[in-house]
């Protein structure tokens, strides 16, 4: 804490009272988004506004372009000791171990394009200490097996399917939340064996090695193919780099009053002013955003933990006023206490963008010029919804229903991988990408496809967020869907659809139909009128409509 030299581009985030005890150079700089990255800068603003944010250490974007030795020295000689003092825990301590998440955060938001490692700091030596601290063996073994799998995928490059298969074998059809601690302990040991088999070496029991390699992997993920592709198509400068945020873990997998969620302060599909939240009890954040798990809406959270739901809604209103826009946020509830983990301007459809800007203007959050600037490139005819035609023709055959994640209607040939999408699109075909999970690795293929259908995933998973931003129809969590990769086909109940046969997605209600269907475009006349009235006040200033 009183080190004579505090490293450059290394910062701490905590509550206002705690920050007063820290070296001034550890405080984030004014307007520091370029150095802290969007995620950490917003965390700092949230903490400063009084929202409950777990303490964090930030290695700024300059380290993304420096040798490992530079950030390693900053991390272990100054940053980590300060974070340990803030939390009254120590990484690797056998009695009071500190566990951390290691997250990326570029100056411009890139949802799901870079990596995260959770639960860093657990090993055979720290397990007893965490058991004593929490009195919760289920939490400890669940977190340990998550660390082995997450670290194995991100750092060691192990196929996550290896760990999924081991989980399925031991779970025998049971949900993860139903597994007792002894089963999770056995699962952790099996994961450790899988790690050794796949990586050719044992999982690291040195927590300093865990942290160093996790940070290295997160920095390196700036140059992952999906991240490079996303920046190229979004016009984001490769030179920006990413920061790394090392934050004290809070545990959504602690008990039945715990969980993880992702939400939007308003509906990102049409702009309706109501919270739009996915939540999983007894889960960690990656369960929701990874696209490998199905999540539920907020109703269960509101029913079981009404005080948390009320605090979440109040916090969402505060976020909008703090940032002046609709927000996409991540949060964890640990034993009935709400923690905010992230906020950023939420990706939305064009129709939602127009309504949100106009509503924020009416509410006094933004002024007329800001509303005009946010909507000036939206053509009035784009403020419409594509729906199934209600008159004439034969009723389409409904195959299944999933969770609508991005609205509209899209039809085309069924394709099971990126290679098939690229091949058929090059030949002039319209294609629907069908996948097991809603993962960001498929974003490049989604850019070419007309829509995305997945068996698993939440409407707030990163791939669904990006689909909305692209204006692609997306349906996730379609449990009636079974993919047969060997036969290159998909089963919906008794109906088998081969790759190349046409299907249609209805992103308005989540329906999946056989063949191609007739559609109709329904304009939103009221929204068009509101937007036209705003533009009339800025006539002659270069608007497009």
Automatic annotation (TrEMBL):
Keywords: Kinase, Pyruvate, Transferase. GO terms for molecular function: ATP binding; kinase activity; pyruvate, phosphate dikinase activity. The keyword Transferase applies. Residues 430-510 form the PEP-utilising enzyme mobile domain. Residues 90-294 form the Pyruvate phosphate dikinase AMP/ATP-binding domain. Pfam families: PEP-utilizers, PPDK_N. InterPro entries: ATP_grasp_subdomain_1, PEP-util_enz_mobile_dom, PEP_util_AS, Phosphohistidine_dom_sf, PPDK_AMP/ATP-bd, Pyruvate_phosphate_dikinase. This is Pyruvate phosphate dikinase. It comes from Tepidiphilus thermophilus.
């Amino acid at each position: 804490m009183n080190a004579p030299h505090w490293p450059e581009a290394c910062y701490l985030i905590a509550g206002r009272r705690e920050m007063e005890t820290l070296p001034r150079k550890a405080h984030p700089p004014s307007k520091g988004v370029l150095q802290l990255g969007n995620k950490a800068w917003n965390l700092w603003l949230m903490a400063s506004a009084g929202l409950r944010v777990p303490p964090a250490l930030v290695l700024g974007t300059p380290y993304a372009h420096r040798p490992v030795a530079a950030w390693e020295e900053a991390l272990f000689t100054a940053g980590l000791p300060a974070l340990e003092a803030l939390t009254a825990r120590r990484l690797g301590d056998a009695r009071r171990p500190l566990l951390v998440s290691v997250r990326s955060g570029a100056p411009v938001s890139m949802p799901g394009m870079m990596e995260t490692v959770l639960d860093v700091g657990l090993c055979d030596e720290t397990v007893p200490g965490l058991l004593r601290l929490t009195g919760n063996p289920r939490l400890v073994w669940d977190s340990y097996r998550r660390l082995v799998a997450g670290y194995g995928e991100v750092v060691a490059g192990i196929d996550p399917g290896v760990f999924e298969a081991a989980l399925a074998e031991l779970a025998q059809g049971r949900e993860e939340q139903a597994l007792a601690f002894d089963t999770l302990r056995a699962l952790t040991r099996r994961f450790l064996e899988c790690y050794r088999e796949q990586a050719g070496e044992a999982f690291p029991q040195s927590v300093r090695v865990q942290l160093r390699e996790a940070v290295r992997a997160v920095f390196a993920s700036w140059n992952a193919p999906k991240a490079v592709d996303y920046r190229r198509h979004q016009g984001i400068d490769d030179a920006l780099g990413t920061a790394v945020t090392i934050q004290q873990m809070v545990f959504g997998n602690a008990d039945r009053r715990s969980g993880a969620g992702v939400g939007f302060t308003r509906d990102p599909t049409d702009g309706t002013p109501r919270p739009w939240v996915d939540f999983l009890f007894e889960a960690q954040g990656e369960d929701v955003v990874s696209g490998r798990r199905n999540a539920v809406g907020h109703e269960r959270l509101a029913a079981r933990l009404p005080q948390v739901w009320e605090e979440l809604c109040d916090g969402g209103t505060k976020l909008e006023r703090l940032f002046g826009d609709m927000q996409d946020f991540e949060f964890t509830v640990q034993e009935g206490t709400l923690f905010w983990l992230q906020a950023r301007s939420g990706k939305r459809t064009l129709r939602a963008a127009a309504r949100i800007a106009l509503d924020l203007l009416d509410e006094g959050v933004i002024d007329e010029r800001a509303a005009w600037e946010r909507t000036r490139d939206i053509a009035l005819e784009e403020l419409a919804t594509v729906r199934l035609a209600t008159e004439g023709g034969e009723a389409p055959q409904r195959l299944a229903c999933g969770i609508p994640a991005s609205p509209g209607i899209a039809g085309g040939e069924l394709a099971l991988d990126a290679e098939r999408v690229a091949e058929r699109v090059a030949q002039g075909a319209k294609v629907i990408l069908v996948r097991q999970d809603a993962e960001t690795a498929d974003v490049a293929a989604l850019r070419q496809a007309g829509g995305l259908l997945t068996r698993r995933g939440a409407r707030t998973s990163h791939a669904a967020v990006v689909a909305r931003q692209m204006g692609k129809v997306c349906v996730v969590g379609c449990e009636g869907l079974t993919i047969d990769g060997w036969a290159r086909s998909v089963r919906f109940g008794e109906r088998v659809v081969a790759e190349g046969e046409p299907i249609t997605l209805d992103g308005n209600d989540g329906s999946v139909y056989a063949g191609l269907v007739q559609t109709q475009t329904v304009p939103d006349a009221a929204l068009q009128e509101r937007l036209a009235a705003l533009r009339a006040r800025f006539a002659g200033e270069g608007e497009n409509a």
